[in-house]
Amino acid sequence: MKHYAIIVAGGSGSRMGGEIAKQFILLGDKPVLVHTIEKFLSLSYPVEIILVLPSDYKDYWKDYCYENKLTFRHILVSGGITRFHSVKNALKHIPPGSLVAVHDGVRPFVTKEFIEQLFEMAEEMEAVIPVLEPADSMRQMKGDISEVVKREEYRFVQTPQIFHSDLLLKAYSQAYSPVFTDDASVVEGMGVNIHLTQGKAVNIKITKPEDLLLAEAILSVF
């Protein structure tokens, strides 16, 4: 099967509070997004990259690639009004009969070995997502009231989420629903079971200023 990676970097980064979108904030000597892309370029087999960016950052990205001599082959797609619409835009470039990973552009510490492991599992399972068990106690809010829940019944969801493209293409033909928070939830909207596998604690998502501090610490030893 041919391998594809949709790297979703369509957000504005409003929670980061800076002047530039979070995917373009420097982590070490390069933007967060470049760290992420390099992980997919390091795979031991070719992967076609489809990069989803806000429309007003496409020229910024092209200029960055030119100035820094980034010449890897990729398709550039405009983000939509939600993550669902962003991925749907990217899927226009995905053929049937392939494997497709959908990954957050601001998860720069995913490893080559982990991506390849997930692709291998997805060949058989068709829909694979990495998850982590909560370490902290959890409470459920009901208005102004909260109550304890059993944390062993919950999981934190990561990316990359990997699917047979036929399955994902069919799933994204559904009408948008607010319950579609990630690709797994879209696929589950058709009644398909998702295979969960152990995620990686280091595979953090950078969305807030404190995440960037943690990322800098990880980078120093990664």
Summarize the structure.
This protein is of the alpha/beta class and 222 residues long. The protein is 31% helix and 25% strand. It contains 7 helices and 12 strands.
How would you describe this protein?
The structure is a single chain. The chain is an alpha/beta fold and 222 residues long. It has a single domain, classed as Spore Coat Polysaccharide Biosynthesis Protein SpsA, Chain A. Helices cover 31% and strands 25% of the residues. The protein is built from 7 helices and 12 strands. Strands 1, 4, 5, 6, 7, 10, 11 and 12 form an 8-stranded mixed beta sheet that branches. A hairpin with a 2-residue loop joins strand 8 and strand 9 (145-149). The protein is globular. The protein starts with a strand and ends with a helix. 37% of the residues are buried. The mean pLDDT is 95.
Core attributes:
8-stranded mixed beta sheet, 31% helix, 25% strand, two-stranded antiparallel sheet, Spore Coat Polysaccharide Biosynthesis Protein SpsA, Chain A, 222 residues, single chain, alpha/beta
